[in-house]
Structure formats: structure tokens, C-alpha cells
Amino acid sequence: MSVSFTDKAGESTIVIVGGVAGGASCAARMRRLNEGAKIIMFERGPDISFAGCGLSYYISGEIAERRRLLIQTPERFHRRFQVDVRTHSEVVSINRTAKLVEAVNRQTGERYQQHYDKLVLSPGAAPLRPPLPGIEGERVFFLRNIEDADRIKTFVEEKDPKTAAVVGGGFIGLEMTECLHNLGLDVILIEMASQVMLQVDKELAQFIHQHLKLKGVDLLLDSPVQDFRETPDGRLFVSVEGGSGVACDFAVCAIGVKPETTLARQAGLELGGRGGIRVNEHLQTSDPDIYAIGDVIETENPVTGGARLVPLAGLANKQGRIAADHIAGKRVTFTGSLATNIVRVFDLTVASVGANEKTLRQNGIPYEKSYTHPASHAGYYPGAAPMVLKIFFSPDSGRVLGAQIVGVDGVDKRIDVLATAIHAGMSVYDLTELELAYAPQFGSAKDAVNIAGYVASNVVEGDIKLFHADELETLRGKGAFLLDVRTTGEFERGHIDGAVNIPIDEIRDRCGEIPKDKLLLAYCLTGIRSYFVCRTLTQNGFRVRNMSGGYVIYCAANPLKCTEIPGLRRWTRLLALETFCSTPEERRILQRNENPTQ
Ligand code: FAD
Fold it and tell me: Can you give the residue range of the structural domain that contains 531?
């Protein structure tokens, strides 16, 4: 399948710009496909193929040795793949007509030109640095590469800071918040938006907000940073819009990244509306001899058809392979990105895939959503932990459009199953049929993904009608009757204003207390008991809808009305206590008492 290109020296020359995730992956694959090609990889920094995704954990000490971050060294890479690795070498311009790149050796200052037959751009994305006063100060850090990590680590070790501000509540900001907290610092997380982790919807982000607070992290939302000021006593004051701010010893800015498109722009390559390089399905730019991969490109969201920037390592690696395959003559295509992502935030794992609610709305895509609260594994086996699983699906065909999960255990495998399902174009009916591995330590006879499929397919079939927390007031304005079917004790501990409590086990006897001429809105803690009630009442001639996700999601969606998400505090205790349980009996008690979804 491989094709060779003849350059001036009589051999094909593939030049790669950027030697980390996408670039190194492309170079290695290229060599495996074409032993005769001349492969040159330019890297501006000192390292290639390093683990950017481990940087925060190197700073915290969880990754104890720096060398662990270096997946490959230039020497080893050269030995294994015969790739001409040129570190400290920045490509500064491209001459498309002559097929030349101009490179500068940053150590010697030498400037020279290099011919290419095919050029692959994988220069990544740079941390956003808005022109805020003081942002270039010595106590304001950014995190992109090992040198940045070294700088933060050295500062923490040498200056013994007590307080840090992390600006930005995305992946890197959340990782750094946890890592600095674990190093014993007081951490203030400052976020411009009204929620962290914009990939997930607001009510799921609320689980993160409350968990951060439980862990002792100060969280400032709706707080755009205005400037950074060094104070006379050698500290830093980060001021936020509205006149307030925080005093700290240093700040880490993680407010997003922007694709490194300088080279592409200079070369006249087409950019997309999101500011990344536009590529076709083979990852070719507007110049077919120049490919672009990784954080620098825009990719299509297969759910919405829209373009977006997805700065994730898995994608960069895959695209590196695809670009190499295509250069070698294989008819491979890149089918877009579902942006499957996952992050650990202290004891929580947060993951999402496909479209979120905002994107679906913005794109006018019809959708229905449902929430379930499955356990990570069989409830009768010790250590089962709850999770919240939200999925979006087409109300007609049931095609799965997106998913989001927050939990303490088992989130990773569920999001991966759902990513596979969305990639394969599966529907919620397919989710019910997936035969997933089960033994009590690992899952349930009806796995979390099956359960999500059952609930969603009930909705598509019309067996159950849902309503969502954000629709409640509108429906009540039209005269609907709100029914809380939890126990009296639960009701007394907290309920939605105006709800009437008839516990599930009394429902058949007390049907007479429920108006038949009104729409009934039923809820319980998670939506399971109220689902049973809905089925009973529907078959008795009532018009009834079930609150998806129950009181837990209502509280998450209404943080001003409910100060705490019921049970969330126990999610953490569940883990902590489990660690100390030495007997099966202790574990059983814990299991019974601590799992809020039971
Ligand atoms: P990079 O890997 O950034 O490589 C680009 C390289 O190109 C850089 O080394 C740069 O020096 C070099 N370069 C740029 N311009 C030139 C030039 N003109 N000449 C020569 N060299 C040049 N992703 C995940 O999926 N999961 C995670 O958990 C995760 N965690 C992360 C944590 C941190 C702290 C960071 C910073 C990133 C994380 N990412 C994560 C994102 C992931 O690292 C990137 O998506 C991925 O590295 C992108 O690959 P790339 O090849 O496009 O760019």
C-alpha cells in the first residue's frame, strides 16, 4: 500500500512539526509503513513524546519520578524508528511553492531550510494568556509542558507557599486544584462562568461544586479575573470583576488553550470558524501536501455536524496514525470527534461524550434526556458506589446523542461503552441489549448502561412520560399536582415546596386523595419509586409524569433552593469508611446505610 515520494535527494521526505502526542505518533507509524522514507521531526522544546496528561500528578508527587513523564527520549526514538529528531528546533515558516520549511535552532541560533514532500503540522495549542495586567508576573504560572511543571514544582518546594489560586475550572484547573490541595495548600478556584467543566451541564457540575467545597476548596464562580498584583509583602492579589479578589502566594492560570496556528496562517492555509486549521476527512489542510493533526485542528462533531476544537491526547494520537496511513497511501478517513473525556476531581470522576444539552439546543436538534442513578456494581456486594448518568437521545428513533456521568467508581467503563454506542450509531434500545460483563465486584446483572437504556427506551415507547426539574414551575403554573412518594421521614428532611407526600407503599390505598382531573407530577429521591407509582397511577386512569433523576437532580438544578445535594456528602464517606471496614458485617452496614440510591 505504501507509496514513495521522490525528493531532490531521491527519497521521500516527511517533515513533522511538533514532537509530542500527534507528531511522535505520526512519525512512528510512518516508519512502520515506509522503511525508506526520510522522516524529520522538529520539536521546539527539549523533550519529545512526553506525558502532558501526567504533568499535574508530577507536581503533586503522585508521579514520583520526572523521567516517568518521558515516554520516549530523542535518542531512543531515533534508535527505534530512525527518525531524525531535531529538538530545540522551531519551524518558523513554510514555503508551499518550494516545499520548504525554515527552521531555527533555538540553542545555536542557526537558521536553515528543509525540503519536504509531505508536511504534517502537530504544533498543539498554547495556554490562553489574555492581556490582563500582571499576568506575566513571576507568581503566575501556566501548565503545558514539563518545563512549566518544573517551574511550579520548584516554586512549591522552594517557597513553601500556603495558598494558591487556580484560575479556570476546566480539566487542567480541576486537576491542579486537587493536586495543590493534596500538597497541603489552601486552594481557591476562580472561574469566570457560573460552573466548572463546561462540557457537562450545569446540574451535573453542581456535584463537582459541592464536592470541591466539601473538600475544603474555596470556589469563586461568575468571577472573571481582572488583574494580578504583587503585594508589598511578596504575595499575589488576584482581583476579580466586581471589586473583590483573593490574596494568595501564587496562581496557576488554566483558562483554556488556543490552537497554534501561526505557521498555518503565515502559509495561507485555510482556518475554520473556531480558529483551528480546517482539514478534510483525510486530515489534509487546504494544501493536500500538508496535513494537520491534534489540538491545532477543528474536528467535526458527528452528532451535530458542527466544527469544534477538541484538545485531547487520544485524538491527537489517532490522527497522527491516520495522517501517516494516508500519506502511505491507505484510504483511511477521520470520522470526527465525540470528544470523549474524563477527569478525576478528588473522589469524583466526571466524564462526558457526544453532545451536551447546550449544544443540542444551539443546533436545534430534537432530543429527550433521562437521568439514572445506578450503582457502580451490585448493591449487595461491598463498596458499590452511586453515580448519576445522564443521556440524551432522539425522541423518535432513540439514537443516543450524548452522555454525562458523575460518580466515584465505574464511571470510566460506562462512558467508554456509551462512547462506543454513539460511535456505532446505536439507539437506546441497543443499550438495553448490550451484554456487559457481570460479577458482583464489577457490575450488575443489569448494568448501569442497560438501566439507562431501559429508562430511555420506556420514554421513546411512551411507557413513561418524564418531566425535568427545569419544567416544574411551568407545569405547576398550569395547575399540575406535585406528588412526593418518598417516606414521611425523607419528606420531612427536605422536599419541594408545595408537594403532597403519599409514600409509595400507601399509594393504592390513598388514590382517592389524588385529583384525577389534574396532571400529576411524581417524584422520589432518584426517580425509581416515582416510576413505579407512575405505572400504577397511569393504569388507574391518572395522567402522570415522573421527575427524571428525582429530588437529587432537582436539588442539583436548584442550588439556591437546596443547599446540598441529598446523599452527596455520603459518596465520599462511602469510600473513606470502606477503607476502614475490616469485616463483612461492617461493610454490609455501610452498604445499607450509605448508599443514597437504595
Ligand atoms: P502537543 O502534544 O502539545 O505537541 C505539540 C508540540 O509542538 C509541542 O511540544 C510544541 O513545543 C511543538 N511545537 C509547536 N510549534 C512548533 C514549531 N513551530 N516548531 C517546532 N515545534 C513546535 N488530554 C487528554 O486526552 N487527557 C488528559 O488527561 C489530558 N491532560 C492534560 C493535562 C495537561 C496539564 C495538559 C497541558 C494537557 C492535557 N491533555 C489531556 C491534552 C493533551 O496533552 C493534548 O491534547 C495533546 O498533547 C495534543 O497533542 P498535539 O500533538 O496536538 O500537541
Answer: 469-547
